[in-house]
Design goal:
Elements (H helix, E strand, L loop, with lengths): L17 E2 L5 H6 L3 E5 L2 E7 L13 H13 L9 E11 L8 E12 L2 E10 L2 E13 L10
Antiparallel strand pairs: 1-2, 2-3, 3-5, 4-7, 5-6, 6-7
């Protein structure tokens, strides 16, 4: 990937979303990503940009799985100091999303066993369900000296 992919990105998002501060590493490559926190929980989102697409100019399945990991994993976060890794991610692809679509996703914790958390999740655009599935995540301690999301 090149550093010029941000030239075509739009930040046309609903007012209740904030950009995630992931400006380095893998988060930077797949972004920009957004989130909103409200009484119903955490919802993450992205707008399908050209660098998210497959040859048909739809959201690439790999991007949807990457986003599912980030959106559903967010269900285990208590705060920015909650660190987790993915043990297993199972996804059912139900529909596609065109270039420019605003995609949202969220997970719900359905099981906890010590530091292993099971989440059921959904990914959608508008009223169209794109993906559903299950993620299993493990909480891990934050490493001393490790940078934040920035």
């Amino acid at each position: 990937m090149t550093d010029d992919f941000t030239r075509s990105q739009t930040f046309d998002i609903p007012a209740d979303y904030n950009e995630l501060p992931w400006h380095r590493g893998f988060g930077r490559q797949v972004g920009p990503l957004f989130e909103k926190r409200d009484a119903s929980g955490l919802t993450r989102a992205f707008r399908v940009e050209e660098h998210h697409t497959n040859g048909m100019m739809n959201a690439h399945g790999g991007m949807l799985m990457t986003f599912a990991d980030m959106a559903w994993g967010g269900a285990v976060e208590k705060d920015e100091d909650t660190w987790w890794v993915t043990i297993r991610l199972m996804c059912d692809f139900l529909s596609g999303a065109n270039l420019g679509s605003f995609i949202e996703g969220r997970g719900e914790v359905v099981g906890v066993a010590d530091d292993i958390i099971t989440v059921e999740g959904r990914i959608w655009t508008g009223d169209k369900l794109l993906m559903r599935g299950t993620g299993i995540f493990k909480l891990i301690p934050r490493r001393d000296g490790a940078p934040g999301r920035g």
